[in-house]
Design a protein that fits this description.
The structure holds 2 protein chains of 2 kinds. Chain A is mainly α. Chain A is built from 4 helices and no strands. The chains are: A mainly alpha, B alpha+beta.
């Protein structure tokens, strides 16, 4: 039973680290993409405010929210593995 | 230096490959000949290949009762599997049905005259010199000794590992490009500013000495 608690605690910590890292990475690539779009030209206004508005849209997008799958899929995989190994 | 680098790299690759080979599941097509449990002494040299003391079937340190499954390959060579719970952390099989597995294995026992071929999924190595045994994870009856089994789990796990390594590299490069390089550039700019000021100061100093010498000469 101690093992299961260990798995839950360390699994939660590990997945949190991976999730937060991926969040930062994905936001960084999105910012870069927005900057490229602006730098390509043809957009009125200030570069910073264009990027800021784009990032605001990104943070409410489905793509951003789907990152939580990084935590959900391994959890499902663990339960699925346990089920397949232990039940005939 | 070149040799040191390559020795280091090859050692690292071998360690990773060995680790994966030990941990990933493999399938043996065998005929089960015997199932039993035996009091087994575990020493410090081979305890890494047994269940940790706090997981399911392994309650205490020291000698413990471990379930074994003996089997024969189609080519008459033999294999002995242990059958222990894995616990919840490592290796990640989350196996807690050792008793059921032992019953299934016993049910599939067969003789040479009337063989029942089974696919034993297991991980680990049989190394007689260390007295270590692969841990059986599941048994399944198959049609014959020549059945081909596609290792889906290994394919998925290896693809995920490769994807993970690729992502770590991408994340690192992104971090380098967006965080380290701008910081370095900023330091460089600041430094350039310092240098420029030093240059003007030096020019001023030169002017000062030049003026001094000129004044001296003129006297």
């Amino acid at each position: 039973m101690i093992g299961l608690i260990k798995l839950i605690v360390f699994g939660f910590l590990g997945l949190s680290v991976i999730y937060l890292t991926m969040r930062i990475y994905a936001a960084s690539t999105e910012r870069e993409r927005l900057e490229r779009i602006f730098d390509a030209g043809g957009i009125e206004g200030d570069r910073d405010s264009f990027v800021r508005a784009g990032m605001k849209d990104y943070h409410s997008s489905l793509r951003h929210k789907l990152l939580i799958l990084i935590c959900i899929i391994p959890t499902i995989a663990i339960f699925l593995t346990a089920y397949l190994v232990n039940h005939q | 230096m070149k040799y040191v680098k390559w020795t280091f790299r090859i050692t690292l690759i071998l360690l990773a490959a060995g680790f994966l080979h030990y941990t990933l599941p493999q399938h043996d097509i065998v005929r089960i000949t015997n199932t039993y449990n035996r009091l087994t002494a575990i020493s410090s040299s081979n305890s890494w290949a047994y269940a940790s003391p706090d997981s399911g079937t392994a309650i205490t340190d020291g000698p413990r009762d471990i379930r074994f499954v003996e089997a024969v390959y189609a080519d008459e060579s033999v294999m002995v599997y242990r059958n222990e719970d894995t616990g919840w952390v490592w290796p990640p099989y989350f196996k807690y049905d050792s008793s059921n597995l032992q019953a299934e294995a016993a049910n599939l026992k067969s003789t040479k005259a009337a063989p029942i071929w089974v696919s034993v999924t297991h991980y680990g190595w049989r190394l007689p010199i260390l007295s270590i045994y692969p841990n059986a994870v599941s048994v399944r009856e198959v049609a014959g000794p020549d059945v081909r089994i596609i290792p889906y789990v290994n394919i998925i796990v290896l693809i995920m590992l490769a994807l993970g390594a690729f992502m770590i590299r991408r994340i690192w490069l992104q971090f380098w490009e967006r965080t380290i390089e701008p910081a370095v550039a900023e330091v460089q700019e600041t430094w350039d500013g310092v240098e420029a000021r030093a240059d003007t100061a030096r020019a001023g100093a030169k002017g000062f000495f030049a003026r001094l010498i000129a004044r001296f000469k003129s006297k």
